[in-house]
C-alpha cells in the first residue's frame, strides 16, 4: 500500500495515505485482521460519509473472501432523536443499507430513536451500556470527526465522563446534515449518543478523516490542549488510538 510521499509525520499515532481509498483499504484490513484473530470481536461503528468506503471493502471481504461476521457484535455510536428506525434518515436504516444487509452479522445495535418518555430513554441508554459490557467491551471503535470536533454526537461542552444519553445537536452539525434531510427544519434537534467515557473505554480506536475541510479540526484534535470545547481532544488520553488520514486531512499536521 502506497503511504503518503509528503514529509513524514513525527507522531506514530498518525498514519497518512495519499488518498481516501488507501485510508479505507488500511482500516478495512485492520478490521479483517481483528475478526480473523478474534471471530467474536466487538466493533464500534460510525455513520457519516467517512467510513462508507470501509464498509464497501468489508462487504467485498465478506462476499469475495468469506470474512465471517456471524459471531461479531456491532454497536453504533449514535442515532437521531426522535426518529423511526425505518425512516430513510435514521442511522439504523443507513447502517442496514450500507453494511448490514450485505454481510452476515447477526448482532448489531443502534441506539433507539423512537419518541418516548425521558425515563424510558434513560433506561434504554443504561441498557445500551450494559449490553456493551456484557459482551466484554468494544475491541475496536471506528470514529469520524465532525467539524465541531464532535465524536459520536458528543458536541462541544460534553463531559469527558459522559455516558450514553440524550444530547442536543450543535447548530453547525444540524446545518451539515440539512441537505440530507431536505432542509434544516427537518433535521432533528436531538440525538442519542454513546458518551465520551463510553468511547474512551474501547480497547482500540481508529479515527478516520478525509479531505481539506477536516484539516483544521484534525489539527486541533491532535494539538490543542484537551478541552470540552473540542471533544475530540479528549482522545489524546487514549492509550491505543490511531488517526488514519488522507493527505488533505493531514495537511496541517504534516511535518510537525
Ligand atoms: P462525515 O461526518 O463522515 O460525514 O464527515 C463525520 C462526523 O460528523 O462525525
Topology:
Elements: E1 14-17, H1 20-37, E2 42-45, H2 52-65, E3 73-76, E4 78-81, H3 91-98, E5 107-109, H4 118-134, E6 140-143, E7 165-168, H5 171-181, E8 190-193, H6 196-200, E9 204-209, H7 215-223, E10 241-246, H8 247-250
Parallel strand pairs: 1-10, 2-3, 2-6, 3-5, 6-9, 9-10
Antiparallel strand pairs: 4-8, 7-8
Helix pairs in contact: 1-2
The structure holds 2-phosphoglycolic acid.
Question: Any overview of this molecule?
Answer:
With 256 residues, the chain is α/β, with parallel strands linked by helices. It has 8 helices and 10 strands. The protein has helices at 20-37, 52-65, 91-98, 118-134, 171-181, 196-200, 215-223, 247-250; strands at residues 14-17, 42-45, 73-76, 78-81, 107-109, 140-143, 165-168, 190-193, 204-209, 241-246. α1 crosses α2. The longest helix has 18 residues, at 20-37. The model has no long low-confidence stretch (mean pLDDT 95). The chain binds 2-phosphoglycolic acid. Residues 48-50, 144-146 line the site of 2-phosphoglycolic acid.
Distance between termini?
23 Å
The largest sheet is: 7 strands, parallel
Structural class label: alpha/beta
Q: What is the helical fraction, as a range of percent? A: 25-40%
Short summary:
The chain is an alpha/beta fold and about 260 residues long. It has helices at about 20-35, 50-65, 90-100, 120-135, 170-180, 195-200, 215-225, 245-250, and strands at about 15, 40-45, 75, 80, 105-110, 140-145, 165-170, 190-195, 205-210, 240-245.
Amino acid at each position: 500500500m502506497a503511504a503518503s510521499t509528503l514529509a513524514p509525520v513525527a507522531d506514530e499515532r498518525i498514519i497518512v495515505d495519499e488518498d481516501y481509498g488507501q485510508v479505507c483499504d488500511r482500516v478495512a484490513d485492520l478490521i479483517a485482521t481483528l475478526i480473523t484473530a478474534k471471530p467474536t470481536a466487538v466493533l464500534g461503528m460510525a455513520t457519516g460519509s467517512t467510513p462508507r468506503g470501509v464498509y464497501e471493502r468489508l462487504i467485498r471481504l465478506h462476499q469475495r473472501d468469506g470474512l465471517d461476521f456471524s459471531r461479531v457484535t456491532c454497536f453504533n455510536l449514535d442515532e437521531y432523536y426522535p426518529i423511526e428506525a425505518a425512516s430513510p434518515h435514521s442511522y439504523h436504516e443507513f447502517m442496514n443499507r450500507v453494511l448490514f444487509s450485505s454481510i452476515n452479522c447477526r448482532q448489531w445495535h443502534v441506539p433507539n430513536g423512537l419518541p418516548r418518555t425521558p425515563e424510558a430513554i434513560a433506561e434504554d441508554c443504561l441498557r445500551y451500556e450494559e449490553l456493551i459490557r456484557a459482551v466484554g467491551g468494544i475491541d475496536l471503535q471506528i470514529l469520524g470527526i465532525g467539524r465541531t470536533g464532535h465524536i459520536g454526537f458528543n458536541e462541544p461542552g460534553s463531559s469527558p465522563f459522559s455516558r450514553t444519553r440524550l444530547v442536543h445537536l450543535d447548530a453547525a452539525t444540524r446545518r451539515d446534515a440539512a441537505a440530507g434531510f431536505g432542509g434544516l427544519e427537518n433535521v432533528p434537534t436531538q440525538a442519542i449518543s454513546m458518551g465520551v467515557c463510553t468511547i474512551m473505554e474501547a480497547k482500540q480506536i481508529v479515527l478516520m478523516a478525509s479531505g481539506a475541510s477536516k484539516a483544521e479540526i484534525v489539527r486541533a484534535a491532535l494539538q490543542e490542549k484537551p478541552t470540552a470545547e473540542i471533544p475530540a481532544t479528549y482522545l489524546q488520553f487514549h492509550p491505543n488510538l490511531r488517526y488514519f488520514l488522507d493527505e488533505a486531512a493531514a495537511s496541517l499536521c504534516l511535518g510537525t
